[in-house]
Amino acid sequence: MVKEKKRVIQGIGIPNPGESLMKRKCHGKVVAEKAGREIIDCKKCEYMHVFPMYSEEELERFYEDTFSESTPSHLFLEKVYTVKRWIKKGTVLDIGCWKGTQLEYFMKEGWRCTGIELNRNAASISKSKGIEVHQISTREFFKRFSRKKWDVINASYILEHISNPDVFLDKIRKNLKNDGILIIEVPNEFNPFQLAYLKKKQLTPYWIALPEHLNYFNKRSLQKLVKRTGWKILHGEVSFPMEMFLLMGDDYLRRKSVGRRSFRKVVEMENTLMEYDPGLLSKMYSALYKNGIGRSIILYLRNR
Description:
By secondary structure, the chain is of the alpha/beta class. It has a single domain, classed as Rossmann fold. It is built from 11 helices and 11 strands. The strands form 2 sheets. Strands 6-5-4-7-8-11-10 form a 7-stranded mixed beta sheet, with helices on both faces. A 4-stranded antiparallel beta sheet has the order 1-2-3-9, with no helix packed on it. The longest helix is centred in the last third of the chain and has 21 residues, at 256-276. The N and C termini lie far apart (40 Å). Residues 1-22 have low confidence and may be disordered.
């Protein structure tokens, strides 16, 4: 079960846009504990995050050399299709592009692509595909590219990894052209399917990962964050709710082979739907988004 104990914690927090010298006094319910730190449902930030927060220097060292994962989202083509509702072709920046898979799909559709990736091995693989990739942190990106603008910016699985998502969302608008599109994608944590599984199995939140994930969003808290930082939500979707397999008895938490088999089933289902009707997948994932159900949340944003 999710442990919920009331505690007020005073200390460093996430600065508001335009208030970089001010520090919030974070406080809220402790929903999980791990590695000597707490995850609090912060009343000031209005989303769950780790406390105390890691420093930017600690995180950059971690991601540059040791962090490794497979590309988290497989709906690469779906994103290209969705973006074309507003922009048919142009320039795209992928922040945290990893091995460049998302940019490959944009390149095939004629987009001019740029990637930012701190992990040196992943950046090298992206470059080998002919993609312009800069192996720098987001902090360095904002220094070096303050005047550069793109039609589309993709920031998938970024906000949960950085200590100041408010500031990131505030700054990144300066890199978008007029009427440009920002795509953000984050894990949908503490979602209804996860909580149902925890209650049934009497578990603690298994998705807490430190220092990889600093912030934990759901539909409600993510919407609040983007609106508070001045963004208009054009469209919302999710990725397939993988926890459904857990609820049906396929325990991929204990057996990786079960997880790989479950993932292949999802990909087969998505391919079949897209071949039948390219818009059907988006309709299904949009409906799930309305109920906050899905493994990740994907928002298409425009500056107000």
